[in-house]
Design a protein that fits this description.
about 35% helix; alpha/beta; Rossmann fold; 9 helices; two-stranded antiparallel sheet; 10 strands; globular; four-stranded parallel β-sheet
Length: about 240
């Protein structure tokens, strides 16, 4: 009784899942919450969801999306792949901090709810990992994020896509090379599971949107009616 009363008067201090600073009840601290909310006001490409750098802040659609039609309708992210979000994604992927998935997903859902196009989604599809990479890491971070997103939005989680080809590391390479690497990398074993559906593809990071393009393309070829994308973070683009 006495301890419960003290917890009410002096709530236990927990570490913020993002910065490690003091927070209450294992929630995101006020500073990190303000940072996340600020991301929603930053300018981004209305198609691929990548954030503009200073030179592109007057744009609405980036050069890549203007020059080449995307197979997906639109994509969004919780914020740019830097600072707080970059550290959190790295913590989830490389340091097994799986508890970060729910906090990252909260930002992703906020970004999705700001766009009416996401109201049409009927199922959530995680970007798959190759069997070899899955054995190496022990989990697929996109699965964790997609599970949290689907639960929050009240939508079914549909593991409709599998990765059938190992691909080289995509870090630091351009869009065209990424597209080449990803050719034939995915398939949809059960086409009936996606036929006629509006699907939300979830990944951890959108860098050039090459992976999202590949997965969206294979889903549309399998009969999906529309594909949207959602990620914990996205890269920046200048024009």
């Amino acid at each position: 009784m006495g301890l419960a009363f003290l917890d009410l008067v002096f709530p236990p201090r927990e570490a913020c899942p993002f910065c490690g600073g003091n927070s209450t009840g294992a929630q995101v601290c006020a500073d990190c919450r303000r940072t996340m909310e600020g991301y929603l006001r930053e300018p981004f490409c209305s198609v691929c969801g990548r954030y503009f750098t200073g030179s592109g802040r007057h744009m609405h659609i980036c050069k890549d999306c203007r020059e080449t039609p995307r197979p997906f309708l639109l994509a969004r992210a919780a914020g740019p792949y830097e600072g707080l979000l970059k550290d959190a994604v790295h913590g989830l992927k490389f340091h097994n901090k799986r508890g970060l998935a729910s906090h990252l997903a909260a930002g992703m859902v906020a970004a999705a709810r700001a766009e009416t196009g996401f109201n049409r989604v009927s199922a959530v599809v995680p970007v798959p990992m190759s069997p070899g990479r899955l054995r190496e890491r022990g989990f697929n971070q996109a699965d964790l994020l997609a599970g949290e997103v689907s639960a929050t939005l009240g939508l079914p989680l549909l593991k409709a896509v599998r990765k059938i080809k190992e691909t080289p590391a995509q870090t630091g390479i351009g869009r065209r090379q990424r597209q080449k690497n990803l050719q034939g990398a995915f398939d949809v074993p059960d086409r009936s599971s996606v036929h006629g559906r509006v699907l939300l593809v979830v990944d951890d990071v959108i860098t050039t949107a090459g992976t999202l393009e590949a997965v969206a393309g294979i889903l549309l070829a399998a009969g999906a009616s529309l594909v949207l994308g959602l990620a914990a973070a996205s890269g920046r683009t200048g024009l």
